[in-house]
Amino acid sequence: MKKGAQYLFLFFALFFLGTGDLLAARKISSTGDTPPSGKAQPVKKTFVEKKTRAAKKASGARKTAAANKASRPLTPEGDKTPPYEEKGAVVKVPSSDVFANSSLESERVTEVLLGDEFIVIREDKEWAYGYIPSQKGYRGWLRKDNIAFSAGNPPPKDQPFIQVKKAKARITFSDGSFLNVYAGTRLPLLNRENGRYEVIVPSGSTGFLPSETAFVENEVPGREVTPEDILQASQFYGPGYKWGGITAGGMDCSGFVYTVFRTNGIYLKRDSYLQAEEGLDVPIDQLKAGDLVFFKSQKTNRITHVGIYIGNGNFIHSSRGKKGVAVSSLSDEAFRKNFAGARRILHLNKTALLEENKEPILRHKNES
């Protein structure tokens, strides 16, 4: 027990440094990826046809209002002055649903993984409300029995971390027990031996991961993520569609994109309309493998869906209509008519993509 307590203390000490500079937002779609309630998000100005001067002025006003809303302090809905202090916590289960409200009956807005940092800013009985740094401040409610509160001690700056790169992997412990984890799971690395990584889990225990299932972050400084790396997304074939999901147990479209890039060390925002703000615009005739492609709803000029271009006019995505991850063609009528633009993430300055952004993102009511 003493040794376990020491590792628990070490885990929290190590974790909160490791996540400091790896900060990583969700989606809706005309292909069936429509939330239970609400509307889709506006397509970015760069994705729609040229507007009149009056329309441009109105669009600018809307953007200003949205920017003002997003810059407000993170507070629970209706609160104007936060009467609480932030508490650091770490997810202690393989994955945990995050909800729009403090109820299992409310909408699942995203998921968090074992070892993910969760900043608690409000508690309500068995529930905690806060934001997720690795999802660039995305916020919601989760059950407190899925997290462990941290001691908040400063960790050594050279602490290495591993990240699971396979859709699923297994951590085994010395007593013969095991824990199944998902792609994107990030844990402190304690040692390497016999083709295994010894890692510390939030409980304070140490376990072992096969080295072929994970990679050590920043082990090859300056390495550029390639389209071939991103196209390993094919490993997620099979999982069913899950609104708010980011694991091999089921994903939504923006969760799929988020996870694919996260497992390559690139943390994008969580929602499709927010992912449409990442990187640079790309004309459709200049698409390259690894570019993000976006689609609008059939009835409104709003971003509703996202996928990853894989070449030859095709893209891979998670769709409710396709019952999970599948490959589709941009020339299919529904996608051709509703194509809303593309963004390039790869071949850009990785430092800019991972720039620290602790300003929490307000969960948009239309994609909650």
Secondary-structure element string: HEHEEEEEEEEEEEEEEHEEHHEEEEEHEH
Number of strands: 23
Q: What fold name stands as the CATH topology of the domain at 2-24 and 75-153?
A: SH3 type barrels
* Helix residue percentage: 10-25%
| Rg (CA only) | 20 Å
Q: What percent of residues are in strands? A: 25-35%
CATH architecture title of the domain at 2-24 and 75-153? Roll
**The CATH top-level class label of the domain at 2-24 and 75-153:** Mainly Beta
CATH homologous superfamily of the domain at 2-24 and 75-153 - what is it? Answer: SH3 Domains
Structural class: alpha+beta
Average pLDDT across residues?
A: 78
How many helices? The count is 7
- Separation of termini? 42 Å
Shape: globular
Uncertain residue segments:
16-34, 36-81, 349-368
Largest sheet: 7 strands, antiparallel
Account of the 3D structure:
The chain contains seven helices and 23 strands. The radius of gyration is 20 Å and the shape is globular. A hairpin with a 5-residue loop joins strand 19 (292-296) and strand 20 (302-311). The strands form six sheets. Strands 1, 18, 19, 20, 21, 22 and 23 form a seven-stranded antiparallel sheet that branches. Strands 7-6-5-2-8 form a five-stranded antiparallel sheet, with helices on one face. It has a five-stranded antiparallel sheet with strand order 14-13-12-9-15. It has helices spanning 2-18, 53-70, 227-230, 253-262, 272-275, 333-338, 350-353, and strands spanning 41-42, 87-91, 95-99, 108-113, 117-124, 127-132, 138-143, 147-149, 161-164, 168-172, 178-182, 186-193, 196-200, 206-210, 214-216, 246-247, 250-251, 280-281, 292-296, 302-311, 314-319, 324-329, 339-344. Among the domains are: 2-24 and 75-153, SH3 type barrels; 161-216, SH3 Domains (SH3 type barrels). By secondary structure, it is of the alpha+beta class. The model is unreliable at 16-34, 36-81 and 349-368 (pLDDT under 50).
